[in-house]
Structures are given as C-alpha cells and as structure tokens.
Amino acid sequence: MKTPTTLLSGLILAGCTAIGFASTTPSPAHHLQPNPPRTIAVHDSEAPPVVRTGILQSTLIMLPAEEKVATVFGGNTADWVFDGGHVASRFISVKPKVANSTTNVHIVSDHGNEYTLQLTEITGDLDQHFDSKVFVTPGDQPGKDKLAAMPVFVPAAELEKAKQETEAARAAETAAVKAQTTKAEQYRSSYPGTLHFDYSWDPRKGRELGLQQIWHDDRFTYLRGQFQETPALYEMKDGKPSLINFDFADGLYTIPKDVAHGYLEIGKKKVDFNRTGEVK
Fold this sequence. Notes:
This protein has helices at residues 4-24, 141-148, 156-190, 203-209; strands at 33-35, 38-42, 50-53, 59-62, 69-74, 80-83, 91-96, 102-109, 114-121, 129-131, 133-138, 199-201, 211-216, 221-225, 232-237, 240-243, 247-249, 252-255, 261-266, 269-275. It is an alpha+beta fold. Among the domains are: 33-148, Immunoglobulin-like (Sandwich); 199-275, Immunoglobulin-like (Sandwich). It contains four helices and 20 strands. Residues 1-22 form the signal peptide. Keywords: Plasmid, Signal. This is Conjugal transfer protein TrbG/VirB9/CagX.
C-alpha cells in the first residue's frame, strides 16, 4: 500500500512530465497560401493600400492595360527585391528576403500616374494568406483621365533600347561611309590604269578643227579640244556613220559608250579617229 507521501510524489512527477512534454511539443506549422487575385484602387488622399507578401514568394503587381512602368522606387532595397523586367511592361514583381519586414514602393507609370503601396511580409501573422497577384488602378478621376491620354514618360527600358538602336544605326552609318570612302579611294588609285590613249587621227586636220586628245576607260569615250563651235560627232559602224549622243562641257565630249571609230565634223572640216589595232 502506497503512503500519502509516495502518492503525492508520483502526482508531482507526472505533472512535471506532462508540462515538460507540452512545452517541447512544436506548434503546428503555418503554410503560406496565395489569395485570389484582387484589385486595389489607389487614392492620392488616402493611406497606401497594404499588399501582403510571403517570404520566398513573388507577388505580381499589374498596372492598367493602358499603362507601362516608367520607374520604380523601393523603400528597402536591401531586404526586398523589385523587378520590372528588362522590357517595358505593366508588370512588377516584388519579393521579400527577410521575414516580418515591411517597406513601401512607389510606381510611376508612363502616363504620369503614381501608385504608392505598403508591402508587408506575413510570416508572423496567424493568417498565412498572401497576395500573389494584385491589380492597381487609379482611384481618382484625374488619374483615370490620364489613362486615355498619350504617355508622357518613356520607360527606362524603352529609352535604353532606343539609345542602343541609335548607336547601332550611327555605327552602321559610319561603317557604310568608311566603306564608301575606301571604295572611292581604291577607285581613284586604280582609275588611271583604266585609261587608254590608243587612238590615232590626222594631226593637221585635228589642229584645224581644234581636237587635242581622245581616250577611253572601261565605260566611256572622251574627246577634248578647243573648238570655236561644237562639232557634230559620228560613230562609224559597218562602214556607216551614225550620230552619237554625248555630253559636252568646257571642250570635253563625254560619250556613254565605247567608240572605236568615228569622226568630228563642222562645216567642211572633218577629222576621222580610229582606235589603234581595231579593224574598221
């Protein structure tokens, strides 16, 4: 039979054991759950709406379809990640890196609307529901009117893209000019080698008419002289003469073809010319 003292000691021991067991039993873990997407109207005269975020979770903030993000200012950039993407869009992703932290975020749209939100991480809350997607809209009429107007700001991503495109176009233009200059220099350096002074004519008749020189390159035939009047120019083909179209300036005939045989004539003065070695 147990004595009262023994019974009391057993009860105390049992009670302590129960208390110790209760104190070491972990409380049920809270699992973050995403809320359904919701819309927040931002009013200039009211406190910033609260957006619930979760550690290691991304919350997507979406501007109205008419707008794009021009710039984002985050209050606590050390403990929070703000990502607007590399292409101008209406989306911003926010993600807390530290539990139970808070910060604010200011979003300026390309239409000039400003949206300020308060962000809070909910690890310490009994309610473990966080906002996975939030649509923000202007709550005041002036902000709504801006949606129908033209954008007033260029998003930084679009500005950088335009800058890169301008620099690329400038570089391409510089390269094209350089290539053209190089081509022109090469042509000028090689052009003398394309000139051929291989014509013959009667020097006496040439002096009477004023003819000084005849030459050709790969495309044109040239005649130079000091003429009191502009002589007519004929080409001989198959023993028959035909008038030639030409440009004449400052005593220079420029004929847009290769002429092997021909003659100049004015009044009773005439001088035939032939390319050396060519069969008439």
